[in-house]
Amino acid sequence: MADMRETLDLSWTEHRRTVDRFSAFSALDDDAKASWLAWCMAKTLEASMGIDKKAGQSGPEPIDLHDHLAALMGINVASHWRPTSANYFDRVSKQALLAHVSEVGGPTMAASFMGSKKGDLSASCEKLFAGETIVAPEVKEAALAWVPEAMRFRVLAASEPDDEAPVEHEPESDAGEVEPAEEQDAHAGETIDA
After folding, report:
1. What are the sequence ranges of the domains in the chain?
2. For 48-85, how does the pLDDT look when each residue is reduced to its tens digit (9 = 90+)?
3. Residue 187: per-residue pLDDT
4. What is the mean pLDDT of residues 137-152?
5. 3-state SS track over the chain
6. Among 124, 85, 76, 119, which residue's Cα sits nearest to residue 101?
């Protein structure tokens, strides 16, 4: 994150007044603003394995915001990463490989690989999940869309507006004595840590 922050255009943060900072930020080119947005998003996201914990496992729970953002942005992990023998299949058990084959091709396809050695099964999985094996169109489609469970985004049910209690705000005490924004900035002598 520190390396990324060093590449950001900080010129807009040098202004004293909030209005001037806003105007200077608005004047940045789209790439600079997009870099700031990416940095802010990265700072706010929490790490998660993306899968529900099983009994006895530790670690962070899946975070609904990650899944929601993935749905909003239409992220398709399979279009950016494909499993190979080197990056995945050689690293999991034979039983896991058979389960993956069963997931995309059914138990009959998985049974046909039962007698295979792990190395041969790994190589076969690489071809199957790359779409290089002659199989039924629906099996090929499922294999090309498949990624390990930890790399999948969950499909969240749409939440009802009344699911969460409304946030209550405390009333402002000196509502009649609000200073203009420019005077607030001048009095505060505020600086911003961007």
Report:
1. 1-44, 60-157
2. 655 666 666 556 667 787 788 888 888 899 999 999 99
3. 47
4. 93
5. CHHHHHCCCCHHHHCCCHHHHHHHHHHCCHHHHHHHHHHHHHHHCCCCCCCCCCCCCCCCCCCHHHHHHHHHHCCCHHHCCCCCCCCCHHHCCHHHHHHHHHHHHHHHHHHHCCCCCHHHHHHHHHHHHCCCCCCCHHHHHHHHHCCCHHHCCCCCCCCCCCCCCCCCCCCCCCHHHCCCHHHHHHHHCCCCCC
6. 124
Alpha-carbon gap, residue 155 to 50, rounded angstroms: 12
């924004």: which residue's tokens?
181
Mean pLDDT of the chain: 81
- Tokens standing for 140? 């090929």
